[in-house]
Amino acid sequence: MTFVLQRSIRAALTLWIVVTVVFTATRMSGDPTYHILPPNTPEVKREVLRHQLGLDRPLVTQYVDYLSGLADGDFGHSFFSGRMVTEMYLERLPATLNLALPSLLLAILIGLPIGTIAAVKPNSPVDRGLMALTFVGQAVPNFVLGIVFILLFSLTLRLLPSGGTGSWPHYILPVLTLGIASIASISRLTRSSLLDVLGQDYIRFVRAKGLPPSKVIIKHALRNALLPVLTVIGLQVGTLIGGAVVVEVVFAWPGAGRLLVAAVMQRDFPMLQFGVLAVAATVIIANVFVDVGCGLLDPRIQARAS
Amino acid sequence: MSVHGQLVPEGSRLIALSKRMQSLLQWNHFRRMPALIRMAAVTIVMLCLVAVLAPLLAPYGSGDQDLLVRLQPPVFLGGAWSHPLGTDHLGRDVLSRLLFALRTTLIIASLGVIVGVVTGGLAGLASGLAGRRIDNMFMLLVDAQASVPLTLLALAAVALTGSSPLVLILIVGISEYDKYARVVRSQVLVIKSRTFVESARALGASPLRVAFRHVLPGLVSPLTVLATINFSSVVILESALSFLGVGIQPPNTSLGAMLGEARNYLISNWCLAAIPTAFIVMITMAVSLLGDWLRDLFDRRLSS
């Protein structure tokens, strides 16, 4: 229990740092009235808006207000549409999740078997082939992969739609594009972690005992090899959300990532702030879960932490 | 050389260092490379050469427009030799733009890696040498940064500062600093406990002197390996930002920016997208292959 508490406190502290950095960065970036009001607006009008936005108050007061606003769930209004940023973001979030969650699932369901198969016979042709594939998957950036997929499957073979949402074929290319890098890193790590475990004495013992190889791998080796893999799966949450930003643009997917790209173009700071905070919170919480999961699987981690 | 070393004892470390670098660059090593790695190394050298010579090689300026010959196909698809790789939607020569784009991409990535190595190296050195409290604080900062995906972080930074090549270099450089910092920190903790550092301290060397004279030289090879591996992720980040339209701004161009522009002409002129794609893939694959090979080489040396 103290272990969970410890991780949560650290997570809260991390989130607080992100909030503070975001606040400082936006305040340092200059006068937002220049982005909201048209150029050539008289100084008096700017002064009024600055007062309305509370920018004429001391920084410390602004910071405290900002924090208490966050605690109330008030993340501000978009500079452009004037709507609550939370509302706008939550509208788009399901589309992003529909992309990221299948990608994560795909990465786990394909990555784990690939890594296991490769580790069972290291340096065999199968292992080399699979590792060469995962190497390519890791080296090619997702937006390049997306374009190649569109050129190949949409324009040349005319098999799959090149963008938009709707029916299930629309999901295939974006999910694959987003997931391939994660498939590659999960399978590489599964392989190396499993190879480590397979070299240990207790594996030699269960083998000597006469257990069939499949049982050795699945029942004894994988269980211990999965611990580092779990950590990497946690890291994929951030990678996938970040990757979704680009993949959504490539496939004209109406998700939160494209909302944030638009916010960058328009200098819509409240929107962008909330985007960064929401993503950071997601990643941090996912990592707490992974940490706690690792602690449950391996009591030694808990012992070391306390 | 050795005479110099005896005359200037402090210089001996530098000489040893340069010898080590020399041995790394030896022809022997090159010959012992597996064929694939040798191909990757040759590709990288060729790409760098082409990038350096871009102004001499390019038949046209990167922004020269000729609206009468827009969207011409490349020679191998029936185009004319006046534009070997065809033209884009503004009638600009694709070959010339490709050369300048390659140049921009490689310059930004190289400078970005240097920024990353310096900031990350210093941060790691500081946190490794300083006491526990600073170390803990630093790790919290690294955690905080790791919680925001790189693409998003870079997007936010561009939104705050506007986009210019300098900003882009700083962003792609600093975004990777934590990787260097972690490695340097752990290496520093190892080196710090060695006897030669202890004796330097006992002789009264100041902490700064210990850091730069005794600890830093031991970090050169891990940093070189890491920089090579990260080079491709820096290329990818720059390309992604330019692809999204928030990186390199027109009239300048980079490989990602070319791909971003070409995206609107996928149906009519797929070559426009395929050409920068091929080059991005070539760079990232070649650099990753070389980086992986270097890491294996380095790891073997560490263990033996």
From TrEMBL, chain A:
Gene3D superfamilies, per the entry: MetI-like
- UniProt family annotation: Belongs to the binding-protein-dependent transport system permease family.
Looking at the UniProt entry, the stretches that span the membrane are 12-30, 99-120, 132-156, 168-186, 225-254, 274-297
Q: Which UniProt keywords apply?
A: Cell membrane, Membrane, Transmembrane, Transmembrane helix, Transport
Q: Does the keyword Cytoplasm apply?
A: no
Topology versus the membrane: Multi-pass membrane protein
| PANTHER family referenced in this protein's UniProt entry, alphabetically | DIPEPTIDE TRANSPORT SYSTEM PERMEASE PROTEIN DPPB-RELATED (PTHR43163:SF6)
Q: Which residues form a coiled coil?
A: none
Q: Where is the ABC transmembrane type-1 domain?
A: 93-290
According to the lineage, what is the superkingdom?
A: Bacteria
Q: List where in the cell it is found.
A: Cell membrane
Record the organism.
Mesorhizobium mediterraneum
Give GO cellular component annotations, separated by semicolons.
plasma membrane
- Subcellular location, principal: membrane
Name the record gives this protein? ABC transporter permease
Any one GO molecular function term? dipeptide transmembrane transporter activity
Automatic annotation (TrEMBL), chain B:
Q: Does the keyword Transmembrane helix apply?
A: yes
* Domain of life according to the entry: Bacteria
Q: What topology in the membrane does the UniProt record assign?
A: Multi-pass membrane protein
Which ranges of the sequence are coiled-coil? none
Give every ABC transmembrane type-1 domain span: 102-291
Query: Which residue ranges traverse the bilayer?
Result: 35-58, 106-129, 150-174, 223-246, 267-290
Which Gene Ontology BP terms does the record give?
A: peptide transport; protein transport; transmembrane transport
Q: Supply one GO CC term from the record.
A: plasma membrane
Q: What is its main location?
A: membrane
Answer whether the UniProt record assigns the keyword Zinc-finger to this protein.
no
Pfam families associated with the record:
BPD_transp_1, OppC_N
Q: Which PANTHER family has this protein been placed in?
A: D,D-DIPEPTIDE TRANSPORT SYSTEM PERMEASE PROTEIN DDPC-RELATED, OLIGOPEPTIDE TRANSPORT SYSTEM PERMEASE PROTEIN APPC
- SUPFAM superfamilies recorded for this chain? MetI-like
Q: Name the InterPro entries on file.
A: BP-dependent_transpt_permease (IPR050366), MetI-like (IPR000515), MetI-like_sf (IPR035906), OppC_N (IPR025966)
Q: Which key words are in the record?
A: Cell membrane, Membrane, Peptide transport, Protein transport, Transmembrane, Transmembrane helix, Transport
Q: What is this protein called?
A: Peptide ABC transporter permease
**Species whose genome carries this gene:** Mesorhizobium mediterraneum
